[in-house]
Amino acid sequence: MTIHNLVTLRDYIRWAVTRFHQSDVFFGHGTDNAFDEARLLVLGALSLPFTISDSYLDCRLEEDEHTHLRSLLAQRIEQHIPTAYLLGEAWYAGMSFVVDERVLVPRSPIAELIAQRFTPWLAHTPERILDLCTGSGCIGIVCAEEFPDAEIVLSDLSFDALEVANINIERHGLEERVYTVQSDGFNGLPNQKFDLIVSNPPYVDAEDFLEMPEEFKHEPSMALECGADGLDLVRRMLAEAADHLTQEGLLVVEVGNSEVHVKALYPDVDFIWFEFNEGGHGVFALTAAQCRQHQELFQSHLNY
Question: Do 218 and 195 belong to one domain?
Fold first, then answer.
């Protein structure tokens, strides 16, 4: 069966699953298997919810819908463009976010920690939260939903990313207590303190970056790669975090595969490393007290 013989939604999903496997499509930007990826793309392309009843899958498509869907499938298979970029939308922690190639596709396991309200590590309900290296704003905006009385700052070095984050702030009606700040690390946040700092910074080391699947090449490289060991920005964040946390604040940072480099660089620091029920790894936390205790050590590693 060629793509021009496809008639129903079910036909397209079945065809896409086969072609995804044949073309070495990578799953990891919202799904982890060919069937879910195919269903997400096919239904999303026609503005249908992922959870729609399977009885709708036997619906026939109009000619303009065939044309649109074929174009998206060709881009996904031939150019390896992530489905979220093709649809202009990604789902994270049950919330919809506008995304494009100015920002990473949301996928951080930190969502699971937000749902748990960072207990038991966060001593009090936070009044001010910083999402450092915010990208689309997804982590900070989900925090805003979980902590409805908190003020949320979304910061990023990229003006392009902040444009997307502002769109998402408006999308969720959070303009009164969520705002963006252009900042290189903490540089644009002088004298500001937060009860919770959450960050999914660039952390991919040079070796891993070269070996990443083609899908990642469509994402902004400045949001992924960060030096030989991936920790160029993380080192700065650790050295300065104590100055931006309240007395009982908490720092939560995702470092992914660079967890091995963090442990090697700071063997005497008792990081809290999280285990996730829904997948993901390489996320640590430090209390404000730990950040203060080790600040001199962290500062001594800035030039490594």
Answer: yes
